[in-house]
């Protein structure tokens, strides 16, 4: 069976990868560690297709292969890091200046990932890419409607019980690269987010703050429900 192009998405990465259906789940986890930085034992995997979301897990992950799952071209493979926040690496350190190659120069290179994707007709260079992208956007919109995702609703983000908050925005966020379709902006109860509700000069809610309570995620990463604000004293046996 031929390899299938999927979008691999985690909290810190998003890239197109070719997945071999004959791989076992254990093999997939091992390869995803090099892409996402999340150890296999801490990965919570799910496959998102227009038909819905399906967890990827099994009692014997060395024996079960990916042929057991509906691998559709350009479906989304989500990798959630189940480690506590303080045990996860921080890839957003802005104290070190980053080198950025101008887009014009990068597009001229013949040994780049972009050049390879052009040659292999992957991503936006795939003649069928527009239809795949539209199907993905429509799936997001259905998910929002069916689960009642809207401003003011309490949610938990990414299955992490410590990342609770309230939805402040649902809609397009043009500043996110390759991020066509709706995003869900959440104001987290604790300052463990990525921003303060503002991205590249566009403010979606609140006022400027040094505390990062804001995060923008795709609809499938939020769980709508009665998620009360956590009480730090609940876990203390004595004071």
Automatic annotation (TrEMBL):
<dbReference type="GO" id="GO:0051010">
    <property type="term" value="F:microtubule plus-end binding"/>
</dbReference>
<dbReference type="Pfam" id="PF14560">
    <property type="entry name" value="Ubiquitin_2"/>
</dbReference>
<dbReference type="GO" id="GO:0043014">
    <property type="term" value="F:alpha-tubulin binding"/>
</dbReference>
<dbReference type="GO" id="GO:0031122">
    <property type="term" value="P:cytoplasmic microtubule organization"/>
</dbReference>
<dbReference type="GO" id="GO:0005938">
    <property type="term" value="C:cell cortex"/>
</dbReference>
<dbReference type="InterPro" id="IPR036859">
    <property type="entry name" value="CAP-Gly_dom_sf"/>
</dbReference>
<protein>
    <recommendedName>
        <fullName>CAP-Gly domain-containing protein</fullName>
    </recommendedName>
</protein>
<feature type="domain" description="CAP-Gly">
    <location>
        <begin position="174"/>
        <end position="218"/>
    </location>
</feature>
<dbReference type="GO" id="GO:0035371">
    <property type="term" value="C:microtubule plus-end"/>
</dbReference>
<keyword id="KW-0143">Chaperone</keyword>
<comment type="similarity">
    <text>Belongs to the TBCB family.</text>
</comment>
<dbReference type="InterPro" id="IPR000938">
    <property type="entry name" value="CAP-Gly_domain"/>
</dbReference>
<dbReference type="GO" id="GO:0007021">
    <property type="term" value="P:tubulin complex assembly"/>
</dbReference>
<dbReference type="InterPro" id="IPR000626">
    <property type="entry name" value="Ubiquitin-like_dom"/>
</dbReference>
<dbReference type="InterPro" id="IPR029071">
    <property type="entry name" value="Ubiquitin-like_domsf"/>
</dbReference>
<dbReference type="Pfam" id="PF01302">
    <property type="entry name" value="CAP_GLY"/>
</dbReference>
<dbReference type="GO" id="GO:0005634">
    <property type="term" value="C:nucleus"/>
</dbReference>
<keyword id="KW-0963">Cytoplasm</keyword>
<dbReference type="InterPro" id="IPR045172">
    <property type="entry name" value="TBCB_Ubl"/>
</dbReference>
<dbReference type="GO" id="GO:0007023">
    <property type="term" value="P:post-chaperonin tubulin folding pathway"/>
</dbReference>
